[in-house]
Write a structure and sequence with these properties.
Chain lengths: 359, 397
Amino acid sequence: MRKEVIDGGQLISIMFWTIMGTAVLTLPVLIGRHAPRDAWIAAVIFIIGGLGLSLVIGALAKKFPEKDFVSCVENVFGIWIGKILIAIFFIWLLHTTSFVIWQISTFTKISLLPRTPLLIVVLIIIIPSVYAVHNGIESVARSGQFIFLITFGTLFVLFLMNMPEVNIENLQPVFDDGFNNIIRSSLAPLAWAGEIMFILFLVPNVKQQKKITQYSMITIILIGIGGIINEFFYTAVFGPLRQHLISPFYTLVRYISPSDFIGRYDVLFVSVNLAGNFVKLSVFMYILIFSFSKLFKKQNHRPFVLPVTIALIILTLISVEGSPQLTNFLDNVFPFYTLPILYGLPSVTLLVAKLRKLK
Amino acid sequence: MFKILKTSLSIAFMLVLLCSCWDRRETEELLLTDALAIDIPINDSDKYEIFFIATKQSSGGEQTQDGEEGGSQMEAQPWVARSQGKSLEEAINKFTVRVPRFIFLDDNKIIILGEKLAQRGVGETLDYLLRKRDLRLRNYIVISNGRVSNSLAASPEFEDGVADEIVAILEKGSQEGDRFHHKDIKKFAEDVVTEGQDAWAPIIEIITPTEVVKYNVDKAVIINKTALFHKDKMVGILDREDTKGFKILKGLANRDTFATEINNENITYAYNQVKVNRSLTTNSDRVGIKYDVKLKGNIAESHLYTDFCDKALKDLEEKFSKVAEEEIKSSVSLMQKLGSDALGIGRFIHAKEPDIWKNYRDNWDMIYQDIDIVVKVDAKIIGTDFISKPIIRKSIK
């Protein structure tokens, strides 16, 4: 098989939407539950956590430049312990991907297709990603790069149009939510930031592997600044009302009204979100199918695309009961097992590799 | 393997295209509401009464003898439907099952709440409306003086329907004078949930035929008062003069007038620029608030002869500053008496002095009624609009 190569810009583009895709839908609600006024601080903590993990990712990539994360773990811990660790990661990813699909499908169902059965919406969402994954990471990266430029610009304009509604007083007094609440509100964003470790699966495909730390940091800073701007706008525009909104970003976009003659910007947000989440889902599915094929020592991931997709569809339809249950789960359970996997696994791998002086 | 994948993807894709017909909607199947009005029903066990106000499009064309349609004119007809239930959802459902249309709230422009409902509390209603995904937060909110059904009986004077008439008055009128100000659901709900801030909304009322200039209209709708809330309950009303003072302090004022008398003759000052600066004052252990209001405007009408020299203008400025100050203070006193912190003084203390707010928070309702609110007005006359001598009665010349 020809080795697929992606450049730094493409890596940043796909990783941006890999983290941002569902973050714009879910994180404002989770952060707003604990620290509505100081929500922007959660985005700062997101940057700190993400940058820390970027250093670990960079160090691992430097140590094992031609190895993906599966081979790297097997090399460091030995075949069997390595396989067990990757299997744990695989189960986490399978479960997480199922509710990523559920979140995207439910948002699409609510905003565009309220009467269409969820299964059909899931199929609409998953088919483009399955096709992209089947074609390989290069296809995902190229479409990601194209989508990134358009969606980034659109989001920027959408926020600018909300400027007249900004009330800075809504952010005062700073640190009013209390230290404990601010830290609690930043757990979910930290878990999202952990997804930057997916880069480790793509290391052999990256053109300039020496710059992995830089790429990872740029991605985290871009998303972090985006998060600060997002949270700033939710609080400045809605004040404490943001706690009572089901989807703050969607509501924010629906609230835009700079003039009487052009309105209804929701379609822009829904399009941007669908495009961004196509990238997110493609990356999640690629890493999932890739790690699964590697687990069975297969070089070609394509034979696994269909079975894993079917498993994902079934899991999506049975694993989530509804939005309130998912929100509670993402707030109260998800960060506590995600943080050890996404931060712990690469850090321990690096530590053991250093202790064992592996090269 | 690739063949199987390709085939299954193609089948799935075709299924998707076929199945998306679930959400197909023809525009004629939709009931595009202009306004939603909610009230408490009279003498009934139900809790809510809901009105849907829409403009129904109907063809005005006639069929010719050879069967062709003789025109494509569409005539807009105002249309009001009523339903009631133990909950808002039940009221809407009862209505949905008896009409062959899908209620589409995306184009709704205004929410009208009955006075009794506002006095009982709007918390549940607001919560329901915020959760209605197709309802936009840009919807204006108004309170009906008395029952909603009475307000809806008004005939529009200039627009197609009463809802459009109210929206037009809200949008244009808020810019032209300071007798009311529009408020949307987002801002209203934000006030209800914000600590140290109470909500307010304009009031619509019906005027009788004798007051209506255009006599082919039975009843017309006007807006010139403001409903004040405490928490989610309406606690009182600011009349048109008090609303002016309230709008000035809120920084929402655009233009309006203050009138006074000199030698028993009227003189009117029309301000068109307003700047408000509020600051906290501390007097021993008490916190107060000071409003510095700067007005700029013209002498718009004078029934007495004067040459408007510098000294005369200075005297007039002082007089108008005093008049404005009195009117604004009267508005503030009424708000304090009613216990409605619509000016957001508590929220201001919270934002600027969080430590003091911690002590005030639990007893804010009591503290607010006694807090010192100082209003200083500086009215400047930037023009007299009297280049030539005014026409006045000879007796006082």
